[in-house]
Design goal:
The chain folds into 2 domains: 177 residues, P-loop containing nucleotide triphosphate hydrolases (Rossmann fold); 67 residues, no CATH class. β7, α6 and β8 form a beta-alpha-beta unit. The longest helix has 26 residues. The radius of gyration is 19 Å and the shape is globular. α5 packs parallel to α6. The protein is built from 9 helices and 10 strands. Strands 6-7-8-3-9-10 form a 6-stranded mixed sheet, with helices on both faces. Strands 2-1-4-5 form a 4-stranded antiparallel sheet, with helices on one face. The mean pLDDT is 90. It is of the alpha/beta class and 257 residues long. GO terms for molecular function: ATP binding; ATP hydrolysis activity.
C-alpha cells in the first residue's frame, strides 16, 4: 500500500502539487486522472522519488519515504516496476534482452533462472516465442506488452504506468487494460496508472483520483463516476470522450487514405 499525506511539490515559487492526500491499495488498479497540465505526472514522479517533495509525506507499506537512507531507497527501487508512455524499449536489444535487463542490473539470479523468469513473464503477456525479435519488428501493442513483461520481471510490489494506452487503437487499449488488471489481481500488486483515457477508467478503475490544478478534486471508483454530481468529474468525462471521438475519426480517415 502507498499512502500520501498532504503532499506538496514546488518548482521555484510555483506550487504544482497542493496538499494532496490519497491511498493506493494493493490488488487494486489505482488511477490518477486529469487534464494535461493538471499535475498528475509531477504527482507520479514524486511518488517514485524522482522529485524531492516540499511538504507532506509518502509512505510505502507504512514506511516514510523521507526517512529512507540511500540503501533502503535502492531496495525500494527493486520493488517497483515501471511502464513508460512510449514503452521505452532498447531498440538495439531483443525482446528477451529488454526483459532480462532489470534482472541483470538488480538481482543475484543465475543466468538459467533469469532466462526462466523472462520466459514466464513473456508467457504471462502472451508473447511466447518472441524472445529474439527486436522492437522494430513489433506492433505498438506488442511493445507495450514487452514493457509490462519487463516491469514485472523483478516481481514488484508496486507497478507504475504512465499513459500505457498512449498511441494505441481502442481495441488494443482494452487488451492492455485487461492485462494490467489481471496481473494486478494475480500478484497483489499496488498498481498506479496515469491516464486520461475514460475507457480505461470505466474498465479498470478500482480507485480513481482526479487532479485539477494541483489539487485532489475527487476520489472514487468507476461506479461512482456514473452517479457523481462533481462538476470536475463531469467536465473531465465530457472532454475525454470528445477527444477520443476526434481521434477515432482521424484514425478512420487515415485508414481510408
Amino acid at each position: 500500500m502507498i499512502r500520501v499525506e498532504n503532499l506538496i511539490k514546488k518548482f521555484g515559487d510555483t506550487e504544482v502539487i497542493r496538499g494532496i492526500s490519497a491511498d493506493f491499495f494493493p490488488g487494486k488498479v489505482n488511477l490518477i486522472i486529469g487534464k494535461s497540465g493538471s499535475g498528475k505526472t509531477v504527482f507520479m514522479k514524486s511518488l517514485l522519488g524522482l522529485y524531492d517533495i516540499d511538504g507532506g509525506e509518502i509512505y510505502y507499506s507504512g514506511e516514510p519515504l523521507s526517512e529512507m537512507d540511500f540503501k533502503r531507497r535502492k531496495t525500494l527501487r527493486t520493488e517497483m516496476g515501471m511502464v513508460f508512455q512510449g514503452s521505452a524499449l532498447f531498440d538495439s536489444l531483443t525482446v528477451e534482452e529488454n526483459v532480462i535487463f532489470p534482472l541483470k542490473m538488480f538481482s543475484n539470479m543465475i543466468e538459467a533462472d533469469m532466462r526462466d523468469r523472462v520466459n514466464f513473464c513473456l508467457g504471462r503477456v502472451n508473447l511466447e516465442g518472441a524472445n529474439k525479435k527486436y522492437p522494430a519488428e513489433l506492433s505498438g501493442g506488442m511493445k507495450k506488452r514487452v514493457a509490462i513483461a519487463r516491469a514485472i520481471a523483478m516481481n514488484p510490489k508496486y507497478l507504475f504506468c504512465d499513459e500505457p494506452n498512449s498511441g494505441l487503437d481502442p481495441q488494443t487499449s482494452i487488451v492492455i487494460d485487461n492485462l494490467i488488471r489481471e496481473i494486478t489481481l494475480e500478484f497483489g500488486i499496488t498498481t498506479v496508472i496515469n491516464t486520461h483515457d475514460m475507457n480505461s477508467v470505466m474498465e479498470i478503475g478500482d480507485n480513481v483520483i482526479l487532479i485539477k490544478d494541483g489539487y485532489k478534486a475527487w476520489q472514487g471508483n468507476k461506479a461512482d463516476i456514473l452517479t457523481t454530481d462533481n462538476e470536475n468529474v463531469n467536465e473531465f468525462v465530457f472532454t475525454s470522450q470528445l477527444l477520443r471521438r476526434v481521434k477515432e475519426l482521424h484514425l478512420q480517415s487515415s485508414r481510408r487514405e
